[in-house]
Amino acid sequence: MRIGILGAGQLGRMLALAGYPLGHTFSFFDVSEGTPCRDLGSLTIGRFEDEGTLKKFAAQCDVITYEFENVPCSAAHQLAEIVPVYPPPRALEVSQDRLTEKEFLQGLDIGTPRFRPANSEQELRDACSLLGLPCMVKTRRFGYDGKGQRMIEELDSVATTWRDLGGAPLIVEGFVPFSRELSVVAVRSKDGEVLTYPLAQNDHRNGILHRSEMPAPELTPELRRSAQAIATKVLVALDYVGVVALELFHVRGELLANEIAPRVHNSGHSTIDGVITSQFENHIRAITGMPLGSVEPHARAVMFNLIGAIPPLDALSTIPNAKLHLYGKSPRPGRKLGHITLLNPSAQDEARIERTIESGSMS
Amino acid sequence: MRIGILGAGQLGRMLALAGYPLGHTFSFFDVSEGTPCRDLGSLTIGRFEDEGTLKKFAAQCDVITYEFENVPCSAAHQLAEIVPVYPPPRALEVSQDRLTEKEFLQGLDIGTPRFRPANSEQELRDACSLLGLPCMVKTRRFGYDGKGQRMIEELDSVATTWRDLGGAPLIVEGFVPFSRELSVVAVRSKDGEVLTYPLAQNDHRNGILHRSEMPAPELTPELRRSAQAIATKVLVALDYVGVVALELFHVRGELLANEIAPRVHNSGHSTIDGVITSQFENHIRAITGMPLGSVEPHARAVMFNLIGAIPPLDALSTIPNAKLHLYGKSPRPGRKLGHITLLNPSAQDEARIERTIESGSMS
Questions:
Q1: Which of A15, A66, A224, B240 has the fewest Cβ atoms within 10 Å of its own Cβ atom?
Q2: What is the mean pLDDT of chain A?
Q3: Per the CB < 8 Å rule, is A23 touching B338?
Q4: At residue B21, does pLDDT exceed 90?
Q5: Which fold has domain A180-359?
Q6: Would the CB atoms of A21 and B326 count as touching at under 8 Å?
Q7: Of B7-21, B54-68, B134-148, which range is least confident?
Q8: Is B294 an 8 Å CB contact of chain A?
Q9: What digits encode the pLDDT tens for the residues A221-233?
Q10: Is the pLDDT of residue B237 over 90?
C-alpha cells in the first residue's frame, strides 16, 4: 500500500523504516521541508488549509495517518472523505484540547488530576483557589514538550501567568504528588484487537523526555491491569485504529491519566530494539489491516533522547548493546536529534551513556 | 555520510534500512531499474563500463560498497580512485572466480573440497577420473543460486555437461559427503576488529536457500572456534572492511570452505531480528568507520525465504513472533520476494509457516 503520513519528522521517518519491510511505500505531507523523511518517500509541502493540495495528496495514498496531533481536524475530515484516515479524526479533536481530553477521560471513568477551565484572569484565580496551590496551568491547545505550561505556587503570580500564556483559554490542574511518570503505548487493529506494551517509566528534563525505561521497574500485576484497562477504554471509545500513547501519573498505588497522544510516542521508541514488534510496525500493521505483532519485550530497554547535539559516536563502542537512532536533522538547541536505546544496561552503562550524551551536548 | 551502493536489490534495500538510523543517506547504482531501493535514496541507472557515469556517481558518495559480487573489478578500481570502496576490490577478484577463490583459501591453509580446473571436455573427463565420481562441476564465473552447476555421476555424461555449461572454463570439485551446510557471517572494522556471528545452518531447495537457522543446532566450541579462525584468516588476508559470508560444509566434524561472498548474505538475514546488531548495520558501521556493534543473539532465529509468491499475510497472525521482510519486488517464479524470520519457534510454528509459504507459492 501507499501510506500517506501527515508530518515528515522523526516519527514519520521511523514509521517508514518500519513499514518498508512490510512491503509499503510512503508519501509525506508537511508545512515545511522536513529533513527526517526527505529520502524515504515522496514529500508534499503545503498548507493544511489548501484543499486542492490535500486532495492531490489523498489521491496518491491508500490510507493516511499522522505523526503529530496538531493536524487541523478540518484537514483530517476532508482527507477522510477521499481515503481512510487512521487514527479516526475524532481522536485529534479529543487530544488537541486539554479540556476536551480531560472531560473525555472523566466520561470514561478514568482517573485524572482534578481540573478546571479558565478563560479569564479571574477564572484562573478562582480555579487556583478552588484546586489549591501549587497547581499546573496549561494552554488548552498547542502545548508540547512543556511548552505553554506554568506552575503557579502563589496567587500573586496569577496575573503574570495569565499574561505569559497569552490570554489563551487555559486548563488548571490540581497538583498531583505523583511518585513517578509512566506511560502506556497500546494499539488497536481494524478488527478491534487491542495489545498493550509494557508500561514505561519516564524522566523529563526541562520539560522534555530525557530517559524512558520499558518495562518500568517495580510493576505489579495490578498496575499492568489498570494501564491495560485505561488504554482499552480509550481505544474502544474512539473506535480507534493504530497506536495510542497515554501519559500517566503513578500516585499512591493508582494511575491517573494526564494526556492522550493519538500517535506513536517518544516513550515507545525503546520498542524498536526491546520488543518483538515495535510501536511503529504495529501502527503500520493496524492501519493497513494486518494482524498485530507480538508486544512481548525481549530485553529491558532504556532509551535516552539526544537533544541539541549528537554525542561522539566512537564513545558508543564502550557501551555494550547501545542502539543508535538518528533522525537526519541538523543540530539546534533543544531539538530532538535522535535517541539511543540500551538493552539490559548496568548502572555503569547508564552512567557512561549519560556522560557521553552530556559531552555531546556541550560540543 | 552519503553511502553509494552498487546494486539496488534487496540487499541494498536492507543496508539502507539499517543505515538510516545511523544518520546516513544512500545513492544506488544499477544496470536496470531495481524496485527494492527505488524509494530509499537516489538511483543511477548506468553501465559499469561507462566511466563518465561511474565518475558522476562516485562524486555523490563519501564511501562506496556493493551488494553483489559480480561488479566488474575494473569498475570497482575506477571508483576506488575517487572515493573509498569497501570491501576492497581485491575481494571481488577473489570471489568472482571459483578457481581463484579455492586457490586463495588453499593458500591460507583453509580446508576446501578437492578441486581441479577444466578448460576442455578432455580436462573435464580427466578431472572427474582423478577426483572420482560423483563430482560437482561449476562454471568458474557468474554462478549463483545453483546456476551454472551440474553433478556428474557417470563419465558418460561428461560431454553433455561440457556442452550444457556452454564450454566455459570450469572447476570440478570432489564430492563431499557433508552432514550439513553451515555458513558464517563475519565483519571487520577499519581498525581491524573482527566479530563473528553465530554459525547458521542452511537448507536449500532447487539450489536456492530455503531455510536458515542461527545459531545452528548442535554447535560445539570447536566448530565455533574453527569458523572464527577461517573467517578471520580470510578477512585479514584481504585487509577486508565490511561483512563477509563463508559457505561451509560440515563433514566428519570438520569445516570445509566452499564459497566466499564479499557482502551481506541471505543466511545472515535472521540477524535483523535475532541478533543485537544485524549484518546490515555492522556492514554500514564498518565501512563508515564506526565501532562495530554486538553480534550476540537474543533468540534462536529461523529464516524462510519467500520465493516466487508472497503467502497470505493474514496467516502470519497464527504464528507467534514471525517477522516479515518484503523486498518491494513483483512476483515471478524463482524470485526472492522477501523472507520471514521466526524467533524461538516450536516445531509446530515451523510446520505452520512451511504450509503458509507453500500455499502462497501455489497461488
A1: A224
A2: 94
A3: yes
A4: yes
A5: D-amino Acid Aminotransferase; Chain A, domain 1 (3.30.470)
A6: yes
A7: B134-148
A8: yes
A9: 999 999 999 999 9
A10: yes
Q: What is the pTM of this model?
A: 0.96
Residue A362 has pLDDT above 80, yes or no: no
Which residue on chain A is closest to B40 by alpha carbon? A40
Q: Would the ipTM clear 0.90, i.e. be above it?
A: yes
Residue B362 has pLDDT above 70, yes or no: no
On the question of pLDDT at B247 being above 70, the answer is: yes
Give the pLDDT band (50/70/90) at residue B363.
very low
Residues of chain A in contact with residue B22, where contact means CB-CB under 8 angstroms, are 324, 326
Whether B20 has its CB under 8 Å from any CB of chain A: the answer is yes
Q: What is the pLDDT of residue B361?
A: 55
| A13 contacts B323? CB cut-off 8 A | no
- pLDDT tens by residue, B285-340: 999 999 999 999 999 999 999 999 998 888 777 788 999 999 999 999 999 999 99
A91–chain B nearest CA distance, Å: 27
| Domain ranges for chain B | 2-85, 114-174, 180-359
CA distance to partner chain A, nearest, from residue B294 (Å): 6
**Given a cut of 60, is residue A361 above it in pLDDT?**
no
Higher pLDDT: B276 or A145? It is: B276
Closest residue to B291, CB basis, from A40, A317, A325: A317
Fold for the domain defined by B2-85 = Rossmann fold (3.40.50)
Whether B325 contacts chain A with CB within 8 A: yes
Of B245, B269, B268, which Cα lies nearest the Cα of B257?
B245
Shortest Cα distance, chain A CAs vs residue B132, angstroms: 46
**Which tens digit of pLDDT belongs to each residue from A147-173?**
789 999 999 999 999 999 999 999 999
CA distance B256 to chain A (A): 32
With CB atoms and an 8 Å threshold, state whether B325 touches A291.
no
Superfamily of domain B114-174: ATP-grasp fold, A domain (3.30.1490.20)
**Residue of chain A whose Cα is closest to the Cα of B291:** A317
Chain B residue nearest residue A312, CA to CA? B290
For range A253-267, the mean pLDDT: 97
Q: Assess A344–B contact: CB distance below 8 Å, yes or no.
A: no
Task: Give pLDDT, residue A146.
Answer: 67
Mutate which of A276, A285, A306 to test chain B, going by most B C-beta atoms within 10 A? A276
Sheet of strand A149-152, all strands in order from the earlier edge strand to the far edge: A115-118, A170-174, A135-139, A149-152
* Interchain proximity B25–A320, CB inside 8 Å: no
How many angstroms away from the CA of B25 is the closest CA of chain A? 7
